[in-house]
Design a protein that fits this description.
Layout: H1 6-12, H2 15-21, H3 26-31, H4 43-47, H5 53-56, H6 62-79, E1 88-92, E2 105-109, E3 113-117, H7 124-132, E4 144-147, H8 154-160, E5 165-168, H9 180-190, H10 196-210, H11 226-239, E6 245-249, H12 258-267, E7 271-275, H13 279-284, E8 287-292, E9 295-301, H14 304-328, H15 339-342
Parallel strand pairs: 3-7, 3-8, 5-6, 6-7
Antiparallel strand pairs: 1-2, 1-4, 8-9
Helix pairs in contact: 9-10, 10-11
Length: 343
């Protein structure tokens, strides 16, 4: 992980240079009523040109302002670390609910899609949870997750917690009263995205492609349907989030173009694991993990014959999607609507 000496940066670089590198730093200056500072000087020199009363109103001295600015930048980078490239994760088996050993060693590389299948309550979500917390034999399953072939110590593990992995759960509710555009702007700022305006446009267009029903940039996120919310989060994960590992829980319930969503994430060279009951998603994955009784029962590589069957499954899926659309539109279902299923 890259280490940046922010004190040296703030003491030697002009404010304008820092804002160019970290645009979100402008928020600090705005919040302390210092947005009009001359940007050609380092912060301490620029503050010498300002009446001390302005920041005394915040209970700060000039030295305090410099220290707070450094802390602000350090905190942002701490929240948004520049990870060394994650090439792979490895799942080392633990035990099922009866304590039977799993005897599993599965390495998943960047760009690969792995599906997780099994009956409801079998333990699919627990496997996602083990990966999310980078388990080190300290969860009920006793599994261990290696990153780039190495175990992480507690310091590295919890420092990376919530940053290495992005998870899209079945249930999603926004609590912010923001428009879609404001939400995307906030997300790009927090991730310190370069060319944020372009990223926001790409993300918004992508979300609308994935969603079954289009929405506007001015739409409040709290007014989005479940499918629209999931589409927005999938697009944000693909275009804004730097997390190299994506865990998805039953995207088939999201009402989005699920196949396109998975392909989008895989193109971004992310490691994608998806818990699913959907045969289309399961067979589009490189491998599938079968869960039984809380344990990994087997790992199956998608065969050439299974891939050949995908065209038939996609035809069946298209038929079902068309029937769903007719039902949503309030139309009657005709036998001709099912002709693809009979072929």
């Amino acid at each position: 992980m890259r280490t940046i000496d922010f004190r040296q940066l703030v003491e030697t670089k002009a404010i304008g240079e820092i804002l160019a590198q970290y645009p979100v730093a402008r928020d600090f200056l705005v919040n302390f009523n210092l947005a009009d500072l001359p940007q050609t000087f380092p912060l301490a020199a620029a503050l010498e040109q300002v009446d001390e009363v302005r920041f005394a109103d915040f209970g700060l001295t000039r030295a305090d302002v410099v220290d707070q600015f450094i802390l602000f930048l350090e905190t942002l980078i701490e929240r948004n670390p520049v990870h060394d490239k994650i090439d792979s994760i490895t799942i080392l088996g633990g035990q099922d609910k009866q304590g039977n050993q799993e005897n599993v060693c599965l390495t998943i590389h960047a760009g690969q899609i792995i599906s997780i299948v099994g009956s409801t309550g079998s333990g699919k979500s627990q496997l996602l949870s083990d990966i999310e917390c980078i388990a080190q034999r300290d969860t009920p399953t006793k599994r261990q997750i290696l990153v780039n072939g190495k175990a992480l110590n507690d310091e590295a593990r919890f420092k990376m917690g919530g940053k290495l992995v992005a998870q899209l759960s079945q249930n999603m509710n926004f609590v912010m009263d923001l428009s879609v555009a404001e939400f995307l702007e906030m997300h790009t700022k927090s991730r310190m995205c370069q060319n944020s305006a372009q990223v926001i446009r790409q993300c918004f267009a992508c979300a609308n492609e994935l969603a079954g029903e289009k929405f506007a940039a001015e739409t409040k996120v709290t007014q989005l349907s479940g499918g629209q919310s999931r589409a927005l989060m999938i697009a944000s994960t693909a275009h804004i989030s730097a997390s190299p590992i994506v865990l998805i829980d039953e995207i088939e319930n999201a009402g989005v173009d699920r196949k396109q969503a998975i392909q989008l994430l895989a193109k971004k060279e992310k490691i994608v694991l998806i818990s699913t009951h959907d045969p289309l998603l399961a067979l589009n994955a490189d491998k599938r993990i079968v869960i039984k009784n809380g344990g990994i029962y087997k790992i199956i590589k998608t065969s050439a014959q299974e891939r050949q069957s995908l065209s038939r499954i996609e035809a069946l899926d298209s038929t079902l999607q068309a029937v769903r659309h007719q039902l949503r539109m309030g139309n009657l279902i005709e036998l001709t609507d099912l002709k693809e299923e009979k072929t």
